[in-house]
Amino acid sequence: MNNFELYNPVKIIFGKDSIGSLPSLLQNHEKILFAFGGGSIKENGIYDQIKTALIHKDVYEFSGIEANPEYDTLMKAVELCRKCKIDFILAVGGGSVIDGCKFIANAVKFKKSDPWNILMGEQSDNALPLGCVLTLPATGSEMNPFSVISRRSMQQKKDFSSVHSYPVFSILDPSVTFSLPERQVINGIIDPFVHVTEQYLTYKVNSPLQDRQSEAILNTLIEEGPKALNNPKDYDVRANLMWCASNALNGVIGKGVPQDWATHQIGHMLTALYNLDHAQTLAIILPALLKHEFEFKKEKLVSYGKRVFNLDYSSDNKIASSAIDKTEKFFRSLGAKTRLSEYKISKKDLPDIAKKVMEVSKGNKLGENKRIGEDEILGILEIAWTAYD
Amino acid sequence: MNNFELYNPVKIIFGKDSIGSLPSLLQNHEKILFAFGGGSIKENGIYDQIKTALIHKDVYEFSGIEANPEYDTLMKAVELCRKCKIDFILAVGGGSVIDGCKFIANAVKFKKSDPWNILMGEQSDNALPLGCVLTLPATGSEMNPFSVISRRSMQQKKDFSSVHSYPVFSILDPSVTFSLPERQVINGIIDPFVHVTEQYLTYKVNSPLQDRQSEAILNTLIEEGPKALNNPKDYDVRANLMWCASNALNGVIGKGVPQDWATHQIGHMLTALYNLDHAQTLAIILPALLKHEFEFKKEKLVSYGKRVFNLDYSSDNKIASSAIDKTEKFFRSLGAKTRLSEYKISKKDLPDIAKKVMEVSKGNKLGENKRIGEDEILGILEIAWTAYD
């Protein structure tokens, strides 16, 4: 096992009617930025619940944080926070709203230079406190310090992390997810699934607990995911998926083990260039990457095949390759596309995509072995482009 | 799944040479209480490592915190802390030292009445900050707010929990456990095992992720435990066991599910009366309790049998009862005794033990169903007393 540090001070309030905890959680704050995305929270009743809970506070609404939150939008919120002396940010939404609010919280206090520099690698010294009401479980942002921000004018999608970005609290009420559109439910299964594989399908370092903790999440997503699509109002199913998503990226399963994240880095570029949903890009890239990196990941793929898909062929190669096929079949069974060609992306674009991924990574090769460069990315994209049979 | 709150701000620094982090972790503190137990840390080199790391600090040593830490001993440390204006407590040891230091940390700041009242249920308002260097993985105390304190003059063993009791940091270097006596290694496998079963072998509430997270720990303990006894200097094995122990009682697996803890409550009394090691009591009581509560726990015992012991009989009853037998066999295979009679405790004592457990619980029945009263405890003790065949 590798050495590691683990720190996660987020307070999770999980369950039915947990939004009712808001007034006591906010008792030491007065000027609240109530930040959200589009109008869905007005349709499903959450907006009204929040307004009721904040009735004795000085509330400033900021709506319009888009999927893949946009730097220019967020900078307007930064200006509002500074002008109105906001002392707490309440993010109500999914990963995009929470990621956006993490950036706002850090940028408000970042005065030494242009806040864009936070996304270029400069560390922030401080941030406004942030609380979350999660409405779309997928990214795990409610229980980690990570944030991904887009700047469309520069065709950029950048991530940052700061110890000041941990939400003070996150409220997770599974029943608020009953009304999610099917596409979001599918994304909310695939995104945590690939968060786990990024931390699990690497190479062995003798970490049986972390391996099993990863398999626990994968098995639960495979078991519960289809139920959520078939029976959207089953509370326990929604609760299980919601808790899987937080556990997939709250830091625990990735401690002491190698991590990959190449699927995410390639996927981010597909979102930046073609506006695909984050999880849609992962469903395309993961199976192709596993095929391309087969020899380097084979040992873990065999464990994965045995313990997640119950495969018991005598040949390890067959178990490992079947595990990849089963992964893609699982994504497709949910209704996700898994090939670039299905999104009408031209094969001629692939070299340019590979080049741009390497530009964003500043030439640093990707993956747990740091062996995925421009040629390898192109190889992965070519596999991902072929027709599914 | 049940509603829950989860909060755990302990910073874990895990791995080889992690004691080297001490100076930076303590940079904002000057007057340090360096608290430990007996002389073992002087023999295995840890004492010297700590002294070197604290060379620029004002260090007050307090040794002699015993197994099942004694209230009267701890109160001497409280006095020392107050007199010398200690601003940080560094606990170096296992669960007893850490539990003891949690009490010291709270009691120093508890001035409204006799600190014994903290153990009688009064909430403390504050505590000195506490850091840990774990030398004996077992109780999980390094990553939770729980503490168990004994007061031998009153034949009492009481627990308390406070939000102020979370260690600020805990340093876990698996290599410091190479020199542990075999009995401690065995205890360090059984204690986390039973921490998990207390949160897992109850009744089903549709919580597949938590169930699998529990099974992940149990399977890893079963796999790695014997290796630690056979090859005490295998770093990865020690690392896996150490991380299992923290994960068994850091709050995660018990969130959203019923919890039992009757085995612990009965076991505490056996320690108070007969001075058995904590884990020794658990190895005796758990199998007997599972037999006595068979019908109420059967559904979970079946899952446990299938997924932890790979049992595949056609009869659920046979899977469940075999799972109990396998549990006891596992404890015995490590070298633990599993019957009261093996410790020469007289059968005539059993009614008195049962009565005393109920006195400590103030008449509240035990277990996840609150159905274990004096008669049931006696029944469990009688099963636990019979000879093992």
Question: From the coordinates shown, what is the CATH architecture of the largest domain in chain A?
Answer: Up-down Bundle
Which shape of chain A, going by the Cα principal axes? Answer: globular
| Uncertain stretches of chain A | none
What is the number of strand segments of chain A? 8
SS content category of chain A: alpha/beta
CATH superfamily of the largest domain in chain A: Dehydroquinate synthase-like - alpha domain
Overall pLDDT score of chain A: 96
Please identify the top-level CATH class of the largest domain in chain A.
Mainly Alpha
List the helices and strands and how they pair.
The structure is a homodimer of 389-residue chains.
Chain A: E1 4-14, H1 22-25, E2 31-36, H2 40-43, H3 46-53, E3 58-62, H4 71-84, E4 88-94, H5 95-109, H6 116-119, E5 130-136, E6 146-151, E7 156-161, E8 169-172, H7 182-200, H8 208-230, H9 235-248, H10 262-274, H11 278-292, H12 294-308, H13 316-334, H14 350-360, H15 374-385
Parallel strand pairs in A: 1-8, 2-3, 2-4, 4-5, 5-8
Antiparallel strand pairs in A: 6-7
Helix pairs in contact in A: 4-5, 7-8, 7-9, 7-11, 8-9, 10-11, 10-14, 11-13, 11-15, 12-13, 14-15
